[in-house]
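Worked example (supplementary).
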Amino acid sequence: MSAATRIQITELARRSIVRSLRQPAQVVPTIIFPLFLVAVNVGGLNAATKLPGFPTNSYLSFAIAVPFVQAAIFAVNNGGADLARDIETGFFDRLSLTPMSGSSLVIAQLAGVVALGLVQAMIYLLVALIFGASFAAGVGGAAVLLALVTVIMFSFGCIGLFFAFRVGNSEAVQGLFPVLFVFLFLSSGSLPRNLIERDWFRTVATYNPVSYLIEGIRSLFITGWDARALELAFGCAAGIGAIFMVLAVTSLRTRMART
Amino acid sequence: MRSRSVALAVAWRSLHNFFTNPTLVIPSVLFPLFFFTAFAGGLSSVSNAPGFDFPDGYTTFQFVFVLLQASAFGGVFTGFSIARDFERGFGRRLMLAAPNRSAILVGYALAALGRAMFVWVLLTALAFAVGMHVSADAPQMAGLYALAAIMSLAAVLWAAGIALRFRSLQAGPLMQTPVFLILFLAPVYVPIELLHGWVKSVAHVNPITAIVEGGRDLISDSPVDALLAYGVGFGLIVLFSVWALTGLRRAEAAG
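After joint prediction of all chains, the assembly is encoded as:
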């Protein structure tokens, strides 16, 4: 990486981080809302731990993986909406007049959502431990958890950027939130796949990459070191990131050509 | 007579806007269907947990909650329409034209009921298509839909109170979030006896619990505490009517 590229990325990344962390409307709900949902689900679905084959006797340890992925869905919204606002306000047009490379721009734009994601992850982990969740993987597992969260946030952030480049409208990017929520609900977020009774739902959950992201995070809480679950989680996250990074850069070129 | 004309005109306009705008219709329909699919499909094995004794199965158990939830959210979304009308100045012109301004509220409430009924039809059709079992007879089912209507009215009056005070769509989260919270602090996934921790304590004092449990008793032909379920429902309607009417007075005072 050349010195010029490094300076470009650093400056834009700093702007992205400051902008994300300075918006309480982006930060507070993304921390409170997932924790509220998990608290309600723990109260409501604790009876599921009595089912034969349920992997733990603490529903909190099982369900706490969901907020980490939910935070990534917020990252799509926040990252995408921020970029769309840059496009709407003309800031992006001014950027495109500079010699900055497309991939630098994409990577730097994601610094804010990744930083916010790491803050969220540490809060979720802390809250989980305070309320008695197990964390079987120990201190080393916490480092792996943060690494996985970083990859997931980056990948989901790429989805937001791709849509922002495509539509250039922050309201339309916000509309993605319910669509992505569908992926969360149709996953193994509430029950392990082997305990999902309906065949069609189990099949959907099996093909849904979000299931593997949740199961990777969950393995650190419940199992400890499950290499297969972690491979799948990192693999799915990296795959989503690679696909949407390419799509985002391609859309960026199209938008720059139009500009 | 003139009040009835105002109420019907507001209701017709609101329903016309709803049914001719796909961005309003699609989320209103898709969300309940999706919640029903996700809850009834993904969590059905919860009914195998010890102590889960709902006789008609998990699909029926979840149908009642989603029906009530969809009705409540139909009311909240109608509150968004009220806020939009006042934000754009239409509400002000409406108040100038209406001899009895309370009729405007009645019109919006009728529109919320119309929207809710549309969702009930689709949700009920889906539930029967995926094999929902119902022990209730026709009057009991009518009683269940009456509870859903009560939820819709209570929610639209709550949302109207907010919309008329703020007269801006930016108040949307204020209308939506409390309704979402109170609904999910009722026994959503399992009967109240199987709830755990603080959620159980909150569910015991949550008025929505009486309505949800009343609905589940009705659909499964179980003994129902009708006085409690309908009493709480009508109590909410009275409370939020006062809230909405005082909101209307605020909107009048604001000009």
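Two points are worth noting when inspecting this output. The mean pLDDT of chain A is 88. Residues 48 and 216 of chain A are 20 Å apart (CA to CA).
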